[in-house]
Design brief:
The structure holds three protein chains of three kinds. By secondary structure, chain A is of the alpha/beta class. Chain A has nine helices and ten strands. Chain A has a six-stranded mixed sheet with strand order 6-7-8-3-9-10, sandwiched between helices. Chain A has a four-stranded antiparallel sheet with strand order 2-1-4-5, covered by helices on one side. In chain A, α3 packs across α4, α4 crosses α5 and α5 packs parallel to α6. By secondary structure, chain B is mainly alpha-helical. Chain C has a single domain, classed as MetI-like (MetI-like fold, Orthogonal Bundle), CATH 1.10.3720. Classes of the chains: A alpha/beta, B mainly alpha, C mainly alpha.
C-alpha cells in the first residue's frame, strides 16, 4: 500500500478547469518533485491534497484513509500534512518559537512548556535556535522559510507539501533552505513544487512533469533528465536549464 | 472653588460612562465585526444593518429612544443605565467598523497557514486573526476613547449627573457660565491629552517588533 | 401609527428645516474658516501657525455641548451679546467644524507634491496666486472623502443644539410627545429614519461627486 495515493483529481474555478485528472502515488519517506511552467495547476494540486481547496472529483488516500470523504475531520488530517508556503505566511504577531509551538498547543493539546520544548528542538533542526525570540519581521527571508519548515515539522507530519518554497527568496538565501530540505529527505515524505532543478536532480526519488492540468510524464530523475520519453518534457527541461542554469 | 466637589462627582460619572461603554462597545464590536466578516449571509446582513443604522443616526436620538420611548413598551431604565446602554450600543457599531478594517488588512495567508496546521476556523480567528487585528486597532481605539469622553457630555440631556450636568447646575445658580464652563473645558482638554499620551505609550509597547504598519481606517470625529 | 405620524408631520417638517439650516450654514462657516486655517498653518509666518495649532487643539478637545454652553449661556446671556440659540449653534458647530476641516485640508495640501508649488513659482506666479490657482483646486478634490465624513458628523451633531433650546428635529419631537405621551416611540423612530435617510443620501451623493472630480491617476485617500 502506498502512503499517499492521488486518484483522478479534477478541479475547476468557474469555467477554468485547472486539474484534469491527476493520479500518482508516493511511498513513505519518499521525495517527489513537481515541475512544470507556471499556471499549470501545480499549486492547486498541493492545495487539493490538504483540502484547502477540496477537489471537485477524485479521491485522495493517506495512510489507507480516504481523506476526500466528506465525513472525515479535515483538521485532524491536516496535522499529518505539513504545508510550506512560497510567501512563508508566518504568524506576524508571534515569535519564531511561538510560530512553531502554537499548533502543538492549540491543535495537539500540548502544555505550553512541552510545546515550546519541542518547538526549540525543531528550530535547532533548521539551524535557528538563536532566533527563537525574534518576530517574523525581524528575520531574513531564508530564516522565515526555515521557521515555516520547523512549524510544519513540529506537527510530526507524514508528508510535507512545499509550494515553491524558494521562489520568494533572494538567490543567496536559497541554499540554506534547500540544505534544510535535503536533510529531511527519507525522514519525512516531501512533495515539492519547485524550479530548483539541482534539488530535483539530487534529492528527488521521483520527478513529476505537469502541463495544462495533467501529468505529462513522471519517473526517477536519472530517466527524466537524461532520457525523457515525451518531446514536451525534453523541451521544458531544455528551456529551464537555459533559464536557471544546469544546477 | 466651592463648586469643585460637585464637579469632581460629575467627573467621576463621566469617566465611569466613558470606560464602561468603551469596554462594552469593544466586546459588541468584536462580535459584530466577526459576524460581518465571517458570518453567513444572514448573520453578516444583520451585523451590517445594525452598524449602518447606528452610524446613520445621531447618538442623541438613540438615547431618547432608550430613555424616553422604551418605557412605552414596558422597558424602564434609570437615566445612568440608559446612558450606558446607549453609549455602548453606539460605540459597538463604530468599533466594529474599525475592527473590520483591521481584520481585512491582515493578509489572507495568515488564516490559510493556520488552517494548514490543523486549526479550525474558530481557533484560527481566536489565535491568529484577532490578536493581530486588535493590535492594529489600537490607534482607532484611542480615537474612540476620546470620542466617548467628549460625547458622554450629551447624556446630560437625559438627566445623568455627569461633569457637564454638574457644571450647568452650578452655573445656573451663580450665573457664572463662562467661568464654570472654561474650567470644564480645561478638564476635558487635559483628559484628552492625558489619555492620548497613555494610549500612544501602550501602543508602542504592544507593537509587533519590526512591523511598523498602521491600519488606514476612517475614524470618527475625535482628535 | 400612521395617523400619529400624519398629525406630527407639519411640526417635524418645521424641525427638519431648522436641522438642515443648521447643517448647511455651519458647514459653510466651517469650510471657509477651515481652508483659511489650513493655508495659514502651512504657509503662514510665525506665530500664526502656532495660534492655529492652539485653536485646533482647543476646539477638537472639548465637547460640542460645552462649546454651545460657552457661546449661548456665556457669551450671549452672561456677557449680553444677545445672540439667539440658532446663531449660537451655527457658530459652535462652525468653529468646531473648522478645527476638524483644517486638519482634512492640511493633510490634503501636504499630499500635493512640492514640485507643484515650485513649478507655479517658476512660471512667475506669486505665492498667493500659486496657492489660489494651483494648490487649492487640487486640495479641494483631495479633501472630498474627509469632507463627506465631516458632513455626516455635523448633520448628526445638529441634534445636540437641542441642549440650548434650538427648535430642530429633536426638540419638535419632544414637543409632540410631551403633548401626546403615546406618540413617543413612533415619533422618535420616525425622526431616526429621517436622519438615516439624510445620512445615507448625503454619503451616496458625496461619493458620486468624489468619483466625478477625482483627478485621474491621483487616487490618494485622505486619512482623518
Amino acid at each position: 500500500m502506498h502512503m499517499l495515493e492521488v486518484k483522478d483529481i479534477h478541479k475547476s474555478y468557474g469555467d477554468l478547469e485547472v486539474l484534469k485528472g491527476i493520479s500518482f502515488s508516493m511511498n513513505k519517506g519518499e521525495t517527489a518533485v513537481i515541475i512544470g511552467t507556471s499556471g499549470t495547476g501545480k499549486s492547486t494540486l498541493l492545495r487539493c491534497i490538504n483540502q484547502l481547496h477540496p477537489p471537485d472529483k477524485g479521491e485522495i488516500w493517506l495512510d489507507g484513509v480516504n481523506i476526500t470523504d466528506p465525513k472525515i475531520d479535515i483538521n485532524k488530517i491536516r496535522q499529518k500534512i505539513g504545508f510550506v508556503f512560497q510567501e512563508f505566511n508566518l504568524f506576524n504577531h508571534l515569535t519564531a518559537l511561538r510560530n512553531v509551538s502554537i499548533g502543538l498547543e492549540k491543535v495537539k493539546g500540548f502544555t505550553k512548556e512541552k510545546a515550546e520544548k519541542k518547538a526549540i528542538e525543531e528550530l535547532k533542526r533548521v539551524g535557528l535556535k538563536d532566533q527563537a525570540k525574534q518576530y517574523p519581521a525581524q528575520l531574513s527571508g531564508g530564516q522565515k522559510q526555515r521557521v515555516g519548515i520547523a512549524r510544519a515539522l513540529a506537527m510530526d507530519p507524514t508528508i510535507i507539501l512545499f509550494d515553491e518554497p524558494t521562489s520568494a527568496l533572494d538567490p543567496e538565501l536559497i541554499g540554506d533552505v534547500l540544505d534544510v530540505m535535503k536533510s529531511l529527505a527519507h525522514k519525512v515524505a516531501m512533495l515539492v513544487v519547485t524550479h530548483e532543478m539541482g534539488f530535483a536532480r539530487n534529492v528527488a526519488d521521483e520527478i513529476i512533469f505537469m502541463e495544462g492540468g495533467v501529468i505529462v510524464e513522471s519517473g526517477p530523475p536519472k530517466q527524466m533528465f537524461q532520457n525523457p520519453k515525451k518531446a514536451r518534457t525534453k523541451e521544458f527541461l531544455g528551456r529551464i536549464s537555459t533559464l536557471y542554469g544546469k544546477d | 472653588m466651592e463648586s469643585l466637589p460637585s464637579l469632581l462627582d460629575g467627573l467621576y460619572i463621566t469617566l465611569i460612562l466613558t470606560f464602561i461603554s468603551l469596554i462594552a462597545g469593544l466586546f459588541l464590536g468584536i462580535g459584530l465585526a466577526l459576524g460581518r466578516v465571517y458570518g453567513g449571509k444572514i448573520v453578516s446582513a444583520i451585523c451590517i444593518g445594525y452598524i449602518e443604522i447606528i452610524r446613520g443616526t445621531p447618538l442623541l436620538v438613540q438615547l431618547f429612544i432608550i430613555y424616553f420611548a422604551f418605557p412605552s413598551i414596558g422597558i424602564t431604565l434609570e437615566a445612568i443605565d440608559a446612558a450606558l446602554l446607549g453609549l455602548s450600543l453606539n460605540s459597538g457599531a463604530y468599533q466594529a467598523e474599525y475592527l473590520r478594517g483591521s481584520i481585512q488588512s491582515i493578509p489572507s495567508g495568515q488564516m490559510v497557514a493556520a488552517r494548514t496546521i490543523g486549526m479550525t476556523k474558530l481557533q484560527s480567528i481566536k489565535n491568529i486573526v484577532l490578536p493581530q487585528a486588535l493590535r492594529i486597532s489600537i490607534p482607532a481605539w484611542s480615537n474612540e476613547l476620546i470620542y466617548l469622553l467628549k460625547y458622554t457630555s450629551i447624556v446630560y440631556i437625559i438627566q445623568v449627573k455627569e461633569l457637564t450636568a454638574e457644571g450647568k447646575f452650578i452655573a445656573a445658580e451663580t450665573f457664572k457660565f463662562l467661568e464654570i464652563f472654561a474650567i470644564i473645558a480645561i478638564i476635558y482638554l487635559v483628559l484628552t491629552i492625558v489619555f492620548s499620551t497613555i494610549i500612544e505609550k501602550f501602543e508602542k509597547k504592544l507593537r509587533i517588533p519590526g512591523l511598523g504598519e498602521k491600519a488606514k481606517i476612517g475614524l470618527r470625529n475625535a482628535l | 401609527m400612521l395617523e400619529i405620524l400624519a398629525n406630527s408631520l407639519p411640526q417635524l417638517a418645521e424641525g427638519l428645516k431648522t436641522t438642515i439650516g443648521l447643517t448647511v450654514l455651519s458647514l459653510i462657516l466651517g469650510t471657509i474658516l477651515g481652508i483659511f486655517l489650513a493655508v495659514i498653518r502651512i504657509y503662514g509666518k510665525f506665530p500664526l501657525p502656532y495660534l492655529i495649532i492652539f485653536y485646533e487643539r482647543v476646539f477638537r478637545g472639548i465637547p460640542l455641548i460645552v462649546i454651545f454652553f460657552l457661546f449661548y449661556f456665556g457669551l450671549s446671556l452672561q456677557i449680553g451679546l444677545n445672540i439667539d440659540p440658532f446663531t449660537a449653534a451655527i457658530f459652535g458647530l462652525g468653529l468646531r467644524g473648522a478645527a476638524y476641516q483644517a486638519q482634512i485640508f492640511r493633510s490634503a495640501i501636504n499630499s500635493i507634491p512640492e514640485g507643484q508649488m515650485v513649478a507655479a513659482r517658476s512660471l512667475g506666479m506669486s505665492k498667493l496666486s500659486a496657492i489660489r490657482n494651483i494648490i487649492l483646486p487640487q486640495m479641494l478634490r483631495l479633501s472630498v472623502p474627509g469632507w463627506s465624513n465631516e458632513f455626516t458628523i455635523v448633520l448628526k451633531d445638529t441634534s445636540i443644539a437641542f441642549s440650548i433650546g434650538v427648535i430642530e428635529l429633536m426638540r419638535q419631537g419632544r414637543y409632540i410627545y410631551v403633548n401626546n405621551p403615546d406618540y413617543v416611540l413612533p415619533v422618535f423612530l420616525f425622526i431616526a429614519l429621517i436622519y438615516f435617510i439624510m445620512v445615507i443620501s448625503a454619503n451616496k451623493t458625496l461619493s458620486y461627486l468624489e468619483k466625478k472630480y477625482k483627478m485621474s491617476g491621483f487616487e490618494i485617500g485622505v486619512e482623518r
